[in-house]
Amino acid sequence: MIKGIGIDMVELSRIEKIIENKTSFVRRVLTDNEYVLFQKLPHKRQVEFLAGRFACKEAFSKAWGTGIGSVGLQDIEVLKEDNGAPKVTKSPHDGKVFVSISHTDTVAVAQIILEID
C-alpha cells in the first residue's frame, strides 16, 4: 500500500550558484557517502548530482508528510545501484522507498513513493 508520494523540482542554475558561493550547503545536503560520489564528478555532473539529491530529499519529506525540518537532509541518503539507478539507502521509513531522478539542461526533478506492507 502506498503511504505517500512526493515530487520536487530544482533549477540547476540555482544549485550552480550555491556550489560556487555557499560551499557549506553541499555538506549540509549530502551525507558522507553521497559526498564521496559528488567529489568524483566533473563540475557539470556535480551540479546535476546535488540538484537531484536535494530534490530527492525534498520529495521524500513531502511523501513523508512533514516537509524538511521534521526529517532532516542528513536523514535521507540516495546512492546508486550497480546499474547506476538511484537507490534510497537511508531514511526514517520502514517500508520500501522508490525513487526516480531526471534532468534536463535547466532542471532536476525527483519523485519518491513510500510503500508500507
UniProtKB/TrEMBL annotation:
<dbReference type="GO" id="GO:0005737">
    <property type="term" value="C:cytoplasm"/>
</dbReference>
<keyword id="KW-0444">Lipid biosynthesis</keyword>
<dbReference type="GO" id="GO:0008897">
    <property type="term" value="F:holo-[acyl-carrier-protein] synthase activity"/>
</dbReference>
<keyword id="KW-0275">Fatty acid biosynthesis</keyword>
<keyword id="KW-0460">Magnesium</keyword>
<feature type="binding site">
    <location>
        <position position="8"/>
    </location>
    <ligand>
        <name>Mg(2+)</name>
    </ligand>
</feature>
<comment type="function">
    <text>Transfers the 4'-phosphopantetheine moiety from coenzyme A to a Ser of acyl-carrier-protein.</text>
</comment>
<comment type="similarity">
    <text>Belongs to the P-Pant transferase superfamily. AcpS family.</text>
</comment>
<protein>
    <recommendedName>
        <fullName>Holo-[acyl-carrier-protein] synthase</fullName>
        <ecNumber>2.7.8.7</ecNumber>
    </recommendedName>
</protein>
<dbReference type="InterPro" id="IPR002582">
    <property type="entry name" value="ACPS"/>
</dbReference>
<feature type="domain" description="4'-phosphopantetheinyl transferase">
    <location>
        <begin position="4"/>
        <end position="102"/>
    </location>
</feature>
<keyword id="KW-0963">Cytoplasm</keyword>
<dbReference type="InterPro" id="IPR008278">
    <property type="entry name" value="4-PPantetheinyl_Trfase_dom"/>
</dbReference>
<dbReference type="GO" id="GO:0006633">
    <property type="term" value="P:fatty acid biosynthetic process"/>
</dbReference>
<keyword id="KW-0276">Fatty acid metabolism</keyword>
<keyword id="KW-0808">Transferase</keyword>
<keyword id="KW-0479">Metal-binding</keyword>
<dbReference type="Pfam" id="PF01648">
    <property type="entry name" value="ACPS"/>
</dbReference>
<dbReference type="InterPro" id="IPR037143">
    <property type="entry name" value="4-PPantetheinyl_Trfase_dom_sf"/>
</dbReference>
<dbReference type="InterPro" id="IPR004568">
    <property type="entry name" value="Ppantetheine-prot_Trfase_dom"/>
</dbReference>
<keyword id="KW-0443">Lipid metabolism</keyword>
<feature type="binding site">
    <location>
        <position position="58"/>
    </location>
    <ligand>
        <name>Mg(2+)</name>
    </ligand>
</feature>
<dbReference type="GO" id="GO:0000287">
    <property type="term" value="F:magnesium ion binding"/>
</dbReference>
